[in-house]
Amino acid sequence: MRKIIVGIVILALTFLTSNIYAQKTIKAQKRLIGGKIEKIEFTDYIENTPDSKEFNKKFKVLEFWATWCKPCLEAVPHLNELKSAFNDEDDLVFLSVTYEAPEKTQKVLERIKFETIVVSDQTKKIHNDLNIEYKGMMILPRTVLIDNSNKIIWYGTPTELSAEIIRKFLKNEKI
User: Fold this and answer.
1) Burial classification of residue 40, based on how many CB atoms lie within 10 Å of its CB (0-12 exposed, 13-18 middle, 19 or more buried)
2) Which run of H or E residues covers position 24?
3) CATH number of the domain that 127 lies in?
4) Domain coverage including residue 164
5) Which of its termini does the chain have fewer beta carbons within 10 Å around, N or C?
6) Structure pTM?
7) Is 148 part of a structural domain of the chain?
């Protein structure tokens, strides 16, 4: 009985600690709003590779995901809908960013249709620059809006992102 109680206490403390740490990570992300990211580059283009890989002068919706992240995969249809709603916006690009190797993503991509450009950041440079991975902890899923001057405008979750937020983003209005 004592082992069970000790196990429950350890489990509860682990959960509490990770939750507190996640909140600190989200605060660290929010502090980056208004700052600029130097350059956006990826190690691999996995799916829906564009003709031009130059995104720095475009408005960018970056969706950070992983194959093991169930909420990330559940958010894909929502992001696909948003991308379809803004298909006519030439200055807007939707990027689904994973840190995993292309080979690792193939089974998921066979099961789930991504309408977005799927890219890999195996070096985790963008993940680190945007505090998606912060002090060794990965916070997923995360959505980041970066404007056409590479200024970080918004952080949130995929379910928080709406067409209205994107419209304001494209007009440089306060979100």
Assistant:
1) buried
2) helix 2-31
3) 3.40.30.10
4) 2-170
5) N
6) 0.82
7) yes
